[in-house]
Write a structure and sequence with these properties.
By secondary structure, the chain is α+β, with helices and mostly antiparallel strands. It has eight helices and ten strands. The strands form two sheets. It has a seven-stranded mixed beta sheet with strand order 5-4-6-10-9-8-7, sandwiched between helices. The protein has a three-stranded antiparallel beta sheet with strand order 1-2-3, with no helix packed on it.
Length: 349
């Protein structure tokens, strides 16, 4: 017999040239379903087998679902005795991040985020956690938790803590995925901040700046409630919570708060960038207005003089003066020159 490990972490047995899979036949909506004992993966199971394992000492059932239908959720509810309200919430996305206690189990909602091109793509994860089981339900284009499962299986001593460690690992993975999103937006915000000092932002840049502020607000709405969720794991005695896990949840809380602070900082920078762009634009408009006003004042002199002598009066003493034309031109040139020098000194020109 030869053991063969597949890409998703499952183990197959090779017997005399025949492949016998230890993984049950795949089912729509079920990403993975396995039972672990003392931190070691025992085998994959079907959903209807879950109740046989959830009550065993040192054993935990970990089931991952992706956009399950109502029938699958009802089957999971029957296997673990989940609360009706929690199942109703799990069947519908767009829930607010929260933690609710239902008897001896807890229900956690968290929002996921990752960059999809130049915008933030949000998903949602619902977690049912009770003694001997964890059920994760993913909605939307969220990142698969296969990496979390592989990482946990690589640390049997940590996974031996059971459902508490699995819950911590998933929350930590969700929070870690916030970091690349914030870093990507941070790089773009820095570029906009530098550009506003070099040149005036155009309409496209202003639209992008507004879009980033709106995206950061949505990300903040997803992150901030998660602070309270992690803090409750850190401080309160939740059903079945292992005291030794408090330090790990405290670390997740610190990471969430750091993400929150980074988001708030970026929103402030974007606000300052927008205000700076407006102030620069107003300064440029003021400068143009000053130039126009200066030239208007200079041109008003010859215009006024020409207007006076353009009146068709017969009795105007200056009309008979021999050098009147040259004198008037001189007055115009001198006056305009003095005005020009004055406006230059005032830095209006």
């Amino acid at each position: 017999m030869v053991l063969h490990e597949t890409d998703d972490g499952h183990v197959d047995e090779l017997k005399t040239g025949t492949l016998t899979s230890a993984k049950p036949r795949s089912r729509p909506g079920v990403v993975a379903a396995a039972v672990y004992e003392h931190g070691q993966r025992i085998r994959d199971i079907e959903i209807h087998e879950a109740h046989q394992w959830k009550g065993r000492a040192n054993a935990v059932v970990w089931i991952g679902l992706h956009e399950p239908d109502a029938a699958l959720l009802r089957e999971v509810q029957a296997e673990f005795g989940l609360h009706e309200l929690a199942i109703e919430d799990a069947g519908h996305a767009h829930q607010r991040p929260k933690l609710e206690i239902y008897g001896e189990s807890i229900f956690v909602v968290a929002r996921t985020a990752h960059m999809g091109g130049d915008e933030i793509v949000f998903g949602e994860t619902h977690l049912f956690v009770g003694r001997g089981y964890v059920v994760s339900v993913r909605h939307g284009p969220s990142t698969s938790y296969n990496q979390v499962r592989q990482r946990c299986e690589a640390s049997p001593a940590a996974l031996a803590h059971g459902e508490n460690y699995i819950l911590y690992s998933i929350l930590d993975f969700i929070v870690d995925n916030y970091m690349p999103v914030v870093e990507g937006i941070h790089a773009e915000v820095e570029e906009l901040e530098e550009r506003v000092l070099r040149e005036r932002l155009d309409k496209k840049d202003i639209e992008r700046l507004y879009f980033l502020r709106r995206s950061l607000l949505r990300l903040r709405n997803a992150v901030v409630p998660l602070v309270d969720v992690c803090r409750r794991h850190e401080n309160l005695e939740l059903p079945g919570m292992d005291v030794t896990m408090h330090a790990l949840f405290r670390d997740v809380t610190d990471h969430v708060r750091r993400v929150q602070e980074d988001i708030d900082t970026l929103r402030e920078v974007l606000a300052f960038t927008f205000e700076a762009s407006l102030m620069i634009g107003q300064s440029e408009q003021t400068e143009i207005s000053r130039k126009l006003a200066s030239w208007a004042a200079i041109l008003a002199v010859p215009t006024a003089i020409a207007g006076i002598y353009g009146m068709n009066f017969d009795e105007m003493p200056e009309l008979k003066f021999r050098y009147g034309y040259f004198l008037i031109l001189g007055v115009i040139v001198v006056t305009c020159s003095l005005l020009y020098r004055m406006f230059r000194r005032m830095k209006w020109l």
